[in-house]
Predict the 3D structure of the following.
Amino acid sequence: TSSAIAETLRIATVGDYDVSLPKLNLAARQVPIVVRLEDAARTDLSLLERLAVPGSKGPVMLGQVATLEYSSGPAVVDRYDRARNVNFEIELSGQPLGDVTKAVQELPSIKKLPPGVRQATVGDAEVMGELFASFGLAMLTGVVCIYIVLVLLFKDVLHPITILAALPLSLGGAFVGLLIAQKSFSMPSLIGLIMLMGVATKNSILLVEYAILARREHGLTRYEALIDACHKRARPIIMTTLAMGAGMMPIALGLGAADSSFRSPMAVAVIGGLITSTLLSLLVIPAVFTGVDDLGQAFGRGFRRLTGGGRGAPASPSSSRSAPPSSTPPAAPPPGH
């Protein structure tokens, strides 16, 4: 084994560890005894090749299992997760961490790593990866909580899906806005996405709630209710979008902000998501509402068919036919009774 080869060379050239050395007991102290090759022998590779290495089937000459040569090596071996490690510390020089990490991944030496060599990100890059995973879990938890609240509010399990359909519309606009503004996808962008989820959900709630109310209380058809909802709810939705977009515009442009590089991606993500969610929600949400409503009606018909199949069966003719009244008077009781 490699450990047996290393131990043989270590004992022959340097000597054994202090705790394993034999001791010469004197009257007042113990003197450790170090056994190793002479100085001239320790530099003779041909002599070192004849050292016996213990094996599973007996000792083997070192020259038969190893090649000895002079070469340079590291003075100190650093380890990370019990593996040999070489650190590359990179100065960002004002560049976003995500862009620098992407540039490192594109290096030919990183793409063609030798066998047994892997890349592990530490420091700020590792923290950023953990932060992205935590934000993803937080966003998923937020979506689940929003769905539960909407189910309790509408007392329905399908129409909240229509409301949550506005979230992908806003996320796409946020990514397009970051691409156009040439901003990196970083922690401020994630904060903007979480803000955007609340606004997009609120706009969708306005449409769906009014459509359900119009069908339930005003007796409108589904098509008429959706058209009326889009007509009457478009104004507050657009007003919300304009107000929030105007408030985020100075931050996106970096006007009067102490740290515009940190806050600007957040504002860009919010503005881009608001634009797409506002324009597409008036078109997509009614279509999704129609599909979900058809699906709910189909499920309702199937459930009623399953639960009402054994009820209301027609009775047999013999059981439904009543006997004609008898015209024979009842017999008189016999005398004496």
